[in-house]
Specification:
elongated, 51% helix, 2 domains, nine-stranded mixed beta sheet, 441 residues, 19 helices
Length: 441
């Protein structure tokens, strides 16, 4: 057997594709629940699988007449006639696993071949080749796990996702579609945290953007939802102290001074035990570059099952291009664009924190000199690209001159709905937020 034939047999399995179709003809639900596998099939087998999927999605019978009306040609209908009476000897689950494995190998082989050509021909920068290999590995893991990779062009008539979303909302009126994160009013405004979306939380220094992000991480962890927290400002120890204080309600400064009473020590002991099992991963690499962040995020999602990524904060993440070649605005724009692309690639929400300007005419100036003016979208440092890339922007406002324990979370941009505000209470002892019972209407 030639090497080319061996390679083709390792990367394609037409018999298994036909076995899956035989299962699907009698039980179309298999393809509806494993849509990503259809995209990996080949030739008329893929065409038949897509036709069965379309018919099943519309609750139509799977028959020769139905395929003809659907527009399938004679070759596809002939394949249907061949496979319909057959009963595969291997279960549908095993066939799906095999096809996913083959698709993952094919993705790796194709990507490795392109990377080898780029490396040996010198046609691209090394960092670009490495980044593409990391993307290939991520896509291969997703295929192996049964996830569908995003991207690609499709006709507007492909409405499966749209129909599914409409049906879900009709069956679940008033419910949040995305992930709940412990702040009901914000959840309502944002429709929860949703995959493929970039959320920006902006605040001036000292207002509490890291505290709010930590609260979200704690609430997700308690619900068993995995989070990767990229802490560019705080060390891992500092962040752990913050999260522990939020969980236990014990002032971390008392712990550092060794001034704990017995009840507080018991709370901390119980909290440490709870935190040990949390699905939370912390990366405190100082001034991490966006390529390394993306690589580690991909691994966290594919290997550890992470469902949310938090970056604290975006202006501390370095771009790929040397600083001498671009302004700070351009660097932040590169990072924000890469984070948005990452959220779409991994289909997880990405929460990026951003520093707001301390002073200046970017604020509403109607208030007195002693008050800290409320922020708006123009308050974002290097604002342009941040605002454009973000699907939602939440601006955190807290004015110690008025009441240091009160804060507003202002939804200033929201592609999933309207803007609005949530009133928050701030606990200075534990540096944490909670939603106030006295909400805006």
């Amino acid at each position: 057997m030639s090497d080319a034939k061996k390679a083709r047999e390792a990367l394609y399995d037409l018999i298994s594709e036909e076995a899956l179709l035989s299962h699907a003809i009698s039980n179309p639900k298999i393809l509806i629940e494993a849509k990503s596998v259809i995209d990996t099939m080949t030739g008329e087998r893929k065409v038949l699988a897509e036709a069965i999927f379309d018919l099943a999605s519309n609750n139509e019978p799977i028959s020769d007449d139905a395929l003809r009306v659907h527009g399938s040609d004679e070759k596809v209908r002939g394949l249907f006639a061949k496979l319909a009476p057959l009963t595969p000897k291997v279960t549908a689950g095993k066939v799906l696993d095999l096809l996913r494995s083959i698709a993952a190998r094919r993705e790796v082989a194709t990507g490795a071949s392109a990377a080898f050509s780029g490396a040996t021909e010198g046609s691209g920068a090394a960092v670009g080749i490495i980044s593409e290999l990391e993307s290939v590995a991520s896509r291969a893991r997703f295929l192996l796990q049964g996830h569908q990779t995003s991207g690609g062009i499709s006709h507007i008539s492909n409405q499966n996702e749209l129909i599914e979303d409409i049906m879900w909302r009709a069956e679940n009126p008033g419910k949040i579609r995305g992930i709940r994160f412990g702040f009901p009013r914000l959840e309502e405004l944002l429709d929860g945290l949703q995959g493929s979306k970039l959320y920006l939380i902006g605040a001036r220094p000292g207002v509490g953007k890291t505290a709010l992000a930590g609260d979200i991480a704690v609430n997700l962890a308690i619900a068993g939802i995995g989070t990767a927290f990229f802490s560019c400002e705080m060390s891992k120890l500092q962040l752990q102290q913050r999260l522990l204080a939020t969980l236990t309600g014990v002032n971390p400064r008392k712990s550092m001074k060794g001034a704990l009473i017995r009840s507080e020590l018991e709370k901390i002991t119980a909290g440490l035990k709870t935190m040990k099992d949390w699905p939370v991963w912390i990366d405190d690499t100082d001034r991490i570059d966006i390529d390394l962040l993306r690589s580690r995020a991909r691994r966290a999602v594919s290997k550890d099952g992470v469902k949310c990524i938090i970056v604290d904060y975006i202006q501390l993440v370095r771009g790929v291009e040397p600083k001498s070649r671009q302004s700070k605005r351009e660097e932040v724009g590169e990072v924000s664009g890469a984070l948005k692309a990452l959220s779409k690639e991994l289909n997880v929400p990405v929460i990026a924190l951003a520093q707001l300007k301390r002073t200046g005419n970017a604020y509403n100036s109607s208030s007195s000199m002693t008050e800290i003016p409320r922020p708006n979208l123009e308050s974002l440092k290097e604002s342009g690209d941040l605002e454009q890339d973000a699907d939602a922007v939440v601006l955190l406002h807290r004015d110690p001159s008025q009441n240091a324990s009160n804060a507003d979370a202002i939804v200033a941009k929201n592609r999933s709905g309207g803007n609005g505000e949530a009133k928050l209470d701030f606990a200075n002892d534990t540096t944490s937020f909670s939603e106030s019972r006295d909400q805006y209407i």
